[in-house]
């Protein structure tokens, strides 16, 4: 999804299932980086496993992998899900902890309205059914970053269920082909975040920060493999993956590991694993021995969460106390897929470009502001924004809103280019100058550095003629049909004109003069 | 002065017959003299005197905050009091000083009440005789060798009830503080007597008081009828399953990390948790935690917890049906008998005692109804006996009005501690005898 969830302390969680073909994903090759089945550790069965006739031999039957993702996303809100303490990015440790957050005896949770609205919005955006009544539960386990000894979550009856997300995948050569896939969303639930643990190996201690964990998005993957038509296999859970790239690698590795294990007649343990980034493989997590019983119990301090729509809204209800799903639906911003479709229709944009524009915060708005102020073709604008502008941003690791070049400036530059006042290469030079942020406009830079294209056609013709006269050998080459010869001449003409002549025009003139 | 009613004392303060500081000092003096009762865990003398001083300033200016201004109060030590140690009578919270006031405490202080101290209880209020706290048992002021059976788990109803914005399960309606009218005519009332509450274990004395009370209403023109709450016999077990499950959950926060007791072991976090909780909790608390965790296990949840919730629904419906049939208020005993002597009381374990003694009062917890216990008379042994009134949901005002009328009828005697104080020597003789059997 495009805009990342900003700071907040509440989590939404949803499951996505996608069927995958034969151990590879999205048409790319099989995962690299997995180790051979010699590395087994605890999953090894003590006795020699029987290899019966029914067990598959290597590569005999097709494998199908099933992947479920558990995604933890922080909600952008001013205060936490159940307490009034503030949410700030990178605050000093334990500086944003209310009595409730520290689980002082006698403190009680109070539900944050904004978080509920955010969950409903997320549910609507993901085509879920919004449960008008949802419940809160306690999930119990002892851990230093969980002060109450339980987490308040929505296990039995979450706020939204049965959604879907349609997404496009770029495949094929140079990822030019775009196919649409759909993933199911099992449920979305509101839940408390745990604190953050900082392990101090040196002093053999762990420090706990109860501000609540930072990290806008965390993903756990559940993976199993089976033969098509047969029941689902035993699944493993791979925890705490923080980037899309590593998520993909971890899943690919785990799928292949499971296939290897099974093809060698071993069993898959229902266990939790973590991903070793350096080795590129999943490893069992030491402290998760045996299955945990979380002793789920209804949260007695929170009544059922009731949501309404316009039809069911009680008469005379205080708008501060009720949430109307229909109202939230109306306030939903345009969803990314719709925006991308509009871009494609309106500007004839390529799908992959529409993705790129939406994948950077603020980039779409930048693009649209440039479009407003320029007469240059949308394709030109797209190209400049995605290649040159975005390139400069990435090089210096800047966000769009930190850009030294404003949309107006870029628009002005593109206008100059469009009117052929400057050449393409001159435009790039101007852009570099603009990037240095000295406050000059493109027009100023162009005139200061004398970058205007030669407008005088006759003068240009004279220069071409002069160059040809001065380099008869090259002209001979040209006549013989050497394609590189003309480029040399163009280069010489450009040099002579201090790059103020359009190479295309130069080429035309040279060819005309040659033929005459 | 100390034997007067709250209303009388409040009037005296307003009229200047006594000042808040004088009143506070009298109370503090009495507390010191009755220290052997072990009623207080913490006496907040400095705080009380300061609050009394402020109250006095307000009275002098004619700006008293209301009827509670300057009135001495004591708060059970499982309510948070900011800046004052709150222990819940447990080793786990010895030395714990909360940074905030419980809502009910805050409201009392906002009204100008003067906090004398924190009173003793069973550890985490788990028990029925205030015998099993970390600071020792409380002695019944009515008798030194007997227990005053405290009424546990009465929800704070009445003038301070209503919405607490920090508790999401309280109702939204900002209940206006109401005045209880003096009911003179009970002829329009219908009093229900649940037949299932007539259990064999009920002492004949309590039964007699119950019967007399019913007759009293009837003689004053009220309709008194027998009603049935058919699921009463399942109620105590149902309560135990749900209660211990919640206990297991609520006590999970006591891990020695953030506050409270922490053991010396630092080999590992798990070892620290285990030792801290073993040292911090008594066996009553630990027993309930273990039971509760058992009920919450995945393989047990449906058969115990979920089943108990269903039974709870049936129990609550019993009450709904009775109230829907025209009954306004139910009248039941509060306890099986007068307070049992301490040596006898401790013959049974906490769980057994709780199961026995809670029989009349926990059903109301599960049905979510207002109830109040009103002292009726002294038993033959000179110990107080009370009866319970149960009202309809959210009809606190009606309930208390009826209770107030009844209170006026029975004229229960005020405890005269002064008399007991005068005979100091005999007090300490009994104290010496009693202290032997009190050794935990």
Looking at the structure, what is the overall shape of chain B?
globular
Beta-strand proportion of chain B: 5-15%
Number of helices of chain B: 15
Overall geometry of chain A comes to elongated
Instruction: Let me know the average pLDDT of chain A.
Output: 82
Sum this structure up briefly.
The complex is a heterodimer of chains A (516) and B (440). By secondary structure, chain A is of the alpha+beta class. Helices cover 33% and strands 19% of the residues of chain A.
Layout of strands and helices, then pairs:
The complex is a heterodimer of chains A (about 525) and B (about 450).
Chain A: E1 10-12, E2 15-21, E3 64-74, H1 113-125, E4 129-130, E5 133-134, E6 137-140, E7 150-153, E8 160-171, E9 177-188, E10 191-192, E11 196-200, E12 205-209, E13 217-226, E14 236-241, H2 244-263, E15 272-276, E16 281-284, E17 297-298, E18 305-306, H3 325-330, H4 336-347, H5 351-358, H6 363-373, H7 378-395, H8 407-418, H9 424-435, H10 442-448, H11 457-470, H12 472-479, H13 483-496, H14 503-515
Parallel strand pairs in A: 14-15
Antiparallel strand pairs in A: 1-3, 1-10, 2-3, 2-9, 3-13, 4-8, 5-18, 6-7, 6-17, 8-9, 11-12, 13-14, 15-16
Helix pairs in contact in A: 4-5, 6-7, 6-8, 8-9, 11-13, 11-14, 12-13, 13-14
Chain B: H1 6-15, H2 20-33, E1 40-43, H3 45-61, E2 72-76, H4 103-110, E3 114-119, E4 190-194, H5 204-219, E5 223-227, H6 232-250, H7 269-280, H8 283-296, H9 298-324, E6 329-333, H10 342-345, H11 350-357, H12 362-367, E7 371-378, E8 384-391, H13 396-410, H14 417-422, H15 424-438
Parallel strand pairs in B: 2-3, 4-5, 4-6
Antiparallel strand pairs in B: 1-3, 6-8, 7-8
Helix pairs in contact in B: 2-3, 6-8, 6-9
